[in-house]
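Fold this sequence, please.
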Amino acid sequence: MSSSSSSPFRLGIIPLALFFLVFFAYPVLHFLWGSLAVDAGGTATLSLRNFTDALRSASVLRSLSTTLLLSVLTGVVSLVLGYLLAFQIVRRNAVIGKIIFVAAIASLFTSTIARALGWRVLLGFEGPINNALIAIGLISQPLQLINNFTAVAIGMIHIQVPVVMVGLIPVIEALPRDFERAAIGLGASRWKTFLTVHLPMTWMNAVPVGLIAIMATAAYFTTPVLLGGGRVNVIAIQIQQASQVLFDFGYAATLSVMLVAMISAVAIGILLLTHWRRNVRARGSSS
C-alpha cells in the first residue's frame, strides 16, 4: 500500500481509537481506580482493602463460583446446540434450515425480560411442563423447576443459543463440501462424516464463538433475578446490591474488576489451549 493511499486509512483509525479510549478504556480504568481508592480522612489513598474484604467474604466467593459455573455451562451447551442448528441450516434441508434461522433471529429481537417471564410460566408449578408430566403419569406432584440454578441455566442457554448459532454459520460454510462428499463416497454415513470429518476441522474455529457466550453470560443480571428468585446469587447481583443498595461504589468497582479478571483468565486459558492444539495439529500434518 502506497503512502498516499495509507493516509486516509490512518485517518480513519483515529475516530475508532478515540471511541475505544472514551467508551472502553476510560470506564475500565475508572473502575480500576475506584476499586483501589479508599477514603482515609477525606483523602483518597490507594489500597487493596476492598479486594481483601471481597476475597474474605464467603458470599462473594460463592457468587464468583456460581457465575463461573453458570457461564461455562451455558457456553458449552449453547455451543453444542448452536453448532447442531447451524449445521442443519448450512448443510441440510433448505426449508427446515430457513425455519430454524427465522425462529432464531426472531428470538434475538425478543426482550430478555419477556423471554425470562415466558420461562417462569413454562416452568411454574401450574405451568405446561409440570402439567404435562403429571398428565402422562411421570410425576404425582409438581416439580420445583423455577427459582433455582437449573431455571437460570435454561434461560441463559435460550438467550445464547441463537447468538452462537449465527456466529457458527460462517464457520461451517467455510468448510468445502468436497470433504464430506469424499467421505460419503468412501462409504461413511452422514453421522460418521459429521463426527470424523466436519467436527474435527471446524471445532477450533467454533470455540471462540462459544467463548463469547461464556463472557456474555457472566455479566447478565436480569435473567438470574427473574428465574433464580433470589436463590441464585451471581456476582452481577452482588454488584447491583453494593452500588444501588449499599451505595458502596468502591466495593462495587472491586467486584466488577474481579469479574473481569475471572472471565479474562478463563478466556485466555481457552484460547491458549486452542492455540496449542492447533500447533500440535500443524506439526503432525507437516511431519
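The mean pLDDT is 86. The beta strands are 37-40, 43-46.
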